[in-house]
Design the sequence.
């Protein structure tokens, strides 16, 4: 299954774009909402405030445009399943109780430890009082980044708010896995083709195989055949990308390939997390990807795969 893949051979497109506005559900969808450079979204907000915040990648701020992520507790006992509760407060300081759905859910909570391990993507439930709650376990000690993709009612764009939650204890950071074109998760192998070019819409194609055979019956999950989250090494800037095409549009097939368009804001190393559903179970395939021009991580003990994503460039003028 480990057939090396030239990542430069971008067969299809996946574009990952960073930016607070970028994570908006359906933004990368066929309805043609622009997904260009983060600054391009300034026109949506129409205010100077929006113009400023739009240039900041998503997930770096606990508060944006008057909306604030407020956890009820900022520490969690590791390896213990418990309800994690939080609110999103509005400009009036009160918990928001009405939201706009994003890809079938009122709120998406993404969790990753600061070393980019321990990825989780869950959907809390909302109480009438505006308190969100979800059973959650942080397996190991460390500082975790919590991201909420959310769109309070009346707000034009989706917000990705982020905060740190600590699981106290002896933190043993895991080194970032080397860049490689194939990720395995259970019986599945997912191959990544395409390259991330900073500041440009880049096509990424992810191809799913099970036991060496292409999977052609990927199940829709949250109104798409795949969801891709990208985190930037160093600050965990956040990007959530939906595929090009969606179930039932008459042209998008349920695998084996899933195509995304993404635009990363800077040269660097990113961790990609692909959520896909098959056999009634959601799995996450993870990749380390360096953009074109990014320096190899010097401290990686095992040699970086020569097929690293830095290979291809110049493709994809495909703005979406
Ligand atoms: Cu979600």
Sequence:
């Amino acid at each position: 299954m480990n057939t090396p893949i030239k990542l430069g051979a971008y067969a299809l497109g996946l574009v990952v774009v960073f930016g607070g506005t970028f994570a908006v559900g359906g933004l990368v969808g066929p309805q043609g909402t622009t997904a260009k450079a983060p600054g391009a979204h300034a026109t949506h907000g129409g205010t100077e405030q929006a113009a400023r915040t739009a240039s900041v990648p998503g997930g770096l701020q606990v508060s944006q445009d008057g909306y604030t992520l407020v956890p009820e507790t900022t520490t969690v006992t590791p390896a213990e399943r418990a309800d994690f509760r939080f609110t999103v407060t509005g400009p009036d300081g009160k918990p928001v109780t009405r939201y706009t759905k994003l890809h079938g859910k009122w709120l998406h909570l993404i969790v990753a430890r600061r070393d980019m391990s321990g990825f989780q993507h869950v959907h809390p439930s909302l109480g009438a009082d505006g308190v969100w709650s979800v059973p959650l376990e942080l397996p190991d000690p460390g500082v975790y980044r919590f991201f909420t993709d959310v769109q309070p009612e009346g707000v034009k764009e989706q917000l990705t708010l982020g905060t740190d939650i600590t699981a106290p204890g002896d933190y043993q950071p895991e080194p970032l896995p080397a860049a490689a074109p194939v990720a395995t998760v259970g019986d599945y192998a997912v191959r990544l083709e395409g390259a991330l070019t900073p500041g440009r819409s880049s096509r990424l194609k992810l191809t799913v195989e099970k036991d060496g055979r292409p999977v052609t019956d990927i199940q829709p999950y949250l109104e798409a055949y795949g969801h891709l989250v990208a985190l930037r090494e160093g600050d965990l800037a956040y990007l959530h990308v939906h595929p090009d095409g969606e179930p039932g549009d008459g042209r998008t097939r349920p695998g084996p390939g899933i195509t995304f368009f993404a635009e990363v804001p800077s040269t660097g190393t990113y961790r990609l997390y692909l959520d896909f559903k098959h056999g009634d179970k959601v799995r996450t395939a993870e990749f380390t990807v360096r953009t074109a021009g990014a320096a190899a991580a010097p401290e990686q003990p095992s040699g970086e795969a020569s097929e690293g994503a830095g290979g291809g460039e110049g493709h994809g003028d495909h703005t979406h």
